Automatic annotation (TrEMBL):
Transmembrane segments: 15-33, 87-108, 176-205, 280-298
Membrane topology listed for this record: Multi-pass membrane protein
Domain ABC transporter: 370-902
SUPFAM superfamilies in UniProt: ABC transporter transmembrane region, P-loop containing nucleoside triphosphate hydrolases
The name this protein goes by in its record: ATP-binding cassette domain-containing protein
UniProt GO cellular component terms: plasma membrane
Organism lineage string: Bacteria, Pseudomonadati, Pseudomonadota, Alphaproteobacteria, Hyphomicrobiales
Primary site of residence: membrane
Alphabetized CDD domains for the sequence: ABC_6TM_exporters (cd07346)
Length: 904
């Protein structure tokens, strides 16, 4: 990595810098002329110099030069203009120079910006590329938030500086020298005054700004440390809550913020002191020009045109000079930042870039044995984890690794999976060192899974197929506009040193998973999900999801058949009372009052309960049917019962789980509201109080809450109101509310609600589990299981997969490894969050599932249960970092050794 930022910029933008410097040099010509022209206008047409006689004329734009070896050459004789014409002509030339100088600045600044953005893109990519090549042990020493902050924020000024690195000193210095030279040409002593002030500014101000640089460096370091500390708090929030250390963290953050405040306050004070001195020096010069230049003009030693031109030229001198000083400060500041980036990312030894080269061609199977020779491993503190272990693991062999925690078994498996690098010794396959093999081989032909899981923000499917995304397998289809846009982006990526790989391509290697394409990938996925016992979890996620019938057409077409099949199945098993179906003419006792009233679902987020309640049509319906008063009285009864029963219970009491209409935090609120509404009259309550009371009735379910508040008369009234609601519903509401229909699919309802078309009876024990089991069988019978599974696979797992449970994450992690169909599978206690019975079942499923149909990969498994070693060809027993015993299950179980102790 280049240590000097200036050399890094020149190395990567040399040709562009030379071009823009040539443009800057060309821009100095009209810049100088724009200084001289005001003098000509004042002395000539305005004061009359050269126009003394009546009808006097002067030549305008006479272009002639004396060229060596050629002589006098006249290009243009010029035009003869009177005094007024000359004034207009010179003024128009001045305007043209102003426009030309502006265009030069526009082009230079635009080019600089584009150059800077390319360099910023290049720097960020190279840093991330280096992160991908860091040795594994280095990640234990750095905080991810600090690395992210450096790449995102701290290199940002480097991109802006790239365009200014060589252009700004040339442009600003050229402008300052041009203005200063022009002043000296007009009057030597005024020029010397300006030069003296410039010299003071150039020497004093940069020296004062050294303190600013030091404070800026401290601010950057403390801000980065704060970012890393915040990242630690987010990652360790469970530990903080579990140990009551939130106030310790608040104190730590407050201390860090105080330190940052102190640094920034000092920075502001010093910054504005420097600005004050700089501005003072800049304003002293005009005073001297007016005083001394005016004196010389009074003496006749300086004409008015020269004085105006000098003042005009100096007006443009402080700007470039100030910007040049600012550039020097930015140069030093950015160099400091780059130095810190260099120190953070200049890690040795990096993974060789050739190991991570793109390989689009299929990779052949590994036919050689894993040969471990004199392997030793240590942690980052130097403690020995594995001590001089030598072993050979053959292809197609199943090996169980057992041993207590800390025995070295886990570290040995990590070394085989290339998660850690050996201190000494070697791991080879076919004579090739494992660390020298391309990741296109190890990442495809060797699968590794441990209890540590990580999933990227995205769907279950994208994370499950992540292990198959090695290279773009097909090119995307673009229309003409998209093709041009992609071509432009590719050209820009190439200029910035970025790869031109198209993310919109299909990167999934379906053949590696045993599929021919996206159409049949589910057939390859499903056995893997069944093996790790996660299929039911994904099915549950699908049942709770809404379905896009434009994508899942078959489900929308078969939903009516599914409802009928479910009813028939429940009837055959004597479970016909487990589900109460929706009936437009009857009240569904298992549904809430709100569901019965609406008899449909709202298209969220376009329509919500609050918006519906505020709709004029809905309010009119309540007034006409008298439901406002009925539901208000019902809400009061609910509030009184809830407050009476639960006001003395702690907030975490399990009884609150039964309250769908009120939380533990709401109890005090409704207690105070009931005291206020002692008259119980509807008219005495404010609109907000009525809404708060009526809201309770909407979530009420008689069989669940059992307050005895739903009479036959009230249920009939709700059904009649429902009919009236849908009969005269306005168009704007009809678009946002989907009425239940037994003959069609309801897109805004969940899949389970669509299939049930009713509500599960609360009185039935385990009703929900029995229904889900029957639904799974029905999906299979109608060949819809894969379609439903794909809906579950669209579930967003959240940041780091945190929307999944730890058990689900470990199962999914194992499934991802299995889907690659590798030659070597290394499982390092991958299911530690599961109970032993489930671990044993999944282990048996995987061993039996991988070794069938002539495919027999090698399996290396660090077991938590030594008894499962009976299923493996060979056993390696680790103890205190060494290989204590090795052999098959009968040998070691009969031998009076350590393995027999583990079995007992």
């Amino acid at each position: 990595m280049e240590k000097s930022l200036a050399r890094y910029i020149w190395k990567n933008t040399r040709l562009q810098q030379l071009w823009i410097l040539a443009v800057v040099a060309a821009s100095m010509v009209p810049y100088f002329l724009s200084f001289d022209l005001p003098k000509q206008i004042v002395n000539g047409p305005i004061q009359g110099d050269g126009f003394e006689g009546p009808g006097a004329r002067q030549t305008f734009m006479h272009i002639a030069y004396d060229i060596p070896l050629i002589g006098h050459v006249e290009f243009f004789q010029g035009l003869q203009l009177n005094r007024f014409q000359m004034l207009m002509a010179l003024s128009l030339v001045f305007l043209a120079l102003v426009v030309l100088n502006g265009l030069f600045k526009f082009y230079i600044n635009t080019y600089k910006g584009r150059l800077g953005e390319r360099m910023l893109r290049r720097i960020r990519f190279e840093l991330i590329d280096r992160v991908l090549r860091f040795p594994p042990i280095h990640f234990k020493r750095v905080k991810s938030a600090e690395i992210a902050t450096m790449i995102k924020d701290e290199v940002e000024p480097m991109g802006g500086f790239t365009g200014d690195a060589f252009v700004s000193p040339a442009l600003l210095g050229g402008q300052a020298i041009t203005a200063l030279a022009f002043i000296i040409v007009q009057n030597f002593w005024l020029g010397m005054i300006a030069a003296g002030i410039v010299g003071v500014q150039a020497i004093v101000i940069p020296r004062m700004r050294k303190r600013l640089l030091d404070l800026g460096r401290q601010r950057q370091l403390t801000a980065r440390e704060l970012s890393g500390r915040v990242g630690e708090i987010v990652d360790g929030i469970g530990t903080i809550h579990g140990n009551d250390t939130s106030n310790l963290e608040r104190a730590d953050i407050a201390s860090r913020l105080g330190r940052i405040f102190s640094i920034r306050y000092d920075l502001y004070q010093w910054k504005f002191l420097v600005k004050f001195i700089n501005n003072f020096l800049a304003q002293v010069t005009p005073f001297l020009f007016y005083a001394i230049g005016g004196y010389l003009a009074l003496q006749g030693r300086l004409d008015i045109g020269q004085l105006v031109a000098v003042i005009s030229a100096y007006k443009d001198l402080p700007g470039p000079l100030k910007e040049l000083i600012d550039w020097d400060q930015m140069r030093q500041d950015v160099q400091v930042k780059y130095q810190q980036v260099y120190e953070q990312f200049n890690v040795e030894p990096l993974i060789d870039s050739r190991i991570q080269e793109l390989a689009t061609a299929p990779v052949g199977a590994l036919t050689g044995a894993f040969v471990v020779t004199n392997l030793s491993l240590s942690d980052d503190s130097g403690a020995r984890l594995v001590d001089h272990v030598s072993v050979e693991i053959k292809p197609n062999e199943t090996v169980a690794i057992v041993g207590p925690n800390g025995s070295g078994a886990e570290a040995f498996a990590e070394a085989l999976g290339r998660m850690v690098w050996p201190d000494s010794g070697r791991i080879t396959i076919d004579g090739r060192d494992l660390l020298d093999m391309p990741e296109s081989i190890t990442g495809r032909r060797i699968s590794y899974a441990s209890s540590d899981t990580f999933f990227f923000h995205g769907t279950l499917a994208s994370n499950l197929l992540y292990g198959l995304k090695h290279a773009p397998m097909t090119d995307p289809v673009y229309d003409e506009r998209e093709a041009l846009e992609y071509k432009w982006h590719s050209a820009e990526a190439e200029k910035a040193g970025n790869p031109t790989l198209d993310l919109n391509s299909d990167w999934v290697d379906y053949k590696a998973a045993g599929a021919s394409g996206p159409e049949d990938i589910l057939k390859a996925i499903r056995p893997v999900l069944d093996a790790v016992l996660i299929s039911q979890d994904i099915l549950d996620l699908a049942l709770r999801s809404t379905v896009n019938t434009d994508v899942h057409v078959a489900l929308g077409d078969h939903v009516v058949a599914l409802r009928a099949s479910l009813r028939d199945r429940l009837r055959d098993e004597g479970l016909d009372t487990i589900v109460v179906p929706f009936d437009f003419d009857a009240y569904n006792a298992q549904a809430t009052v709100g569901e019965n009233l609406l008899f449909g679902t709202m298209k969220r987020p376009l329509m919500t309960n609050r918006r519906l309640a505020a709709h004029p049509y809905f309010q009119q319906l309540f007034r006409e049917t008298g439901l406002s008063t009925d539901l208000y009285d019902m809400g009061l009864e609910i509030a009184e019962n809830a407050v009476e029963l639960f006001h003395d219970l702690p907030p975490d009491h399990p009884f609150f789980q039964q309250l769908t209409f009120m939380t533990a935090d709401d109890i005090p609120t409704y207690q105070a509201l009931l005291q206020k509404l002692q008259s119980r009259r509807f008219e005495d309550a404010t609109p907000e109080e009525r809404s708060a009371i009526i809201r309770l009735s909407f979530a009420y379910i008689e069989p669940r809450h059992r307050f005895g508040l739903l009479t036959n008369e009230l249920m009939e009234k709700i059904v009649n109101a429902r009919k009236q609601f849908h009969e005269h519903i306005p168009a704007d509401l009809a678009e946002l509310i989907e009425r239940y229909d037994a003959e069609r699919f309801t897109p805004s309802a969940s899949l389970m609600d669509n299939v049930l078309f009713g509500r599960i009876a609360y009185q039935q024990a385990d009703a929900s589990d029995r229904i889900r089991g029957i639904m799974g069988e029905l999906f299979d019978a109608l060949d819809l299981y894969d379609d439903v599974l794909s809906i579950g696979l669209e579930f967003d797992v959240g940041s780091g997969g945190k929307r999944l449970t730890m058990v689900q994450r470990q199962k999914l992690n194992l499934a991802r490894a299995l889907l690659k169909r590798s030659d070597y599978f290394i499982f390092n206690r991958p299911l530690s969050a599961l109970d032993q019975r489930v671990q044993d079942q999944i282990t048996r499923n995987i061993i039996e599932g991988l070794h069938e149909e002539g495919h027999r990969p090698a399996i290396i498994w660090v077991l938590s249960n030594a008894r499962l070693a009976e299923m493996f060809d060979r056993i390696l027993l680790f103890d205190r970092g060494g290989l204590a015993e090795a052999g098959n299950y009968p040998e070691l179980s009969e031998k009076n050794g350590m393995f027999k102790e583990l079995l007992s």
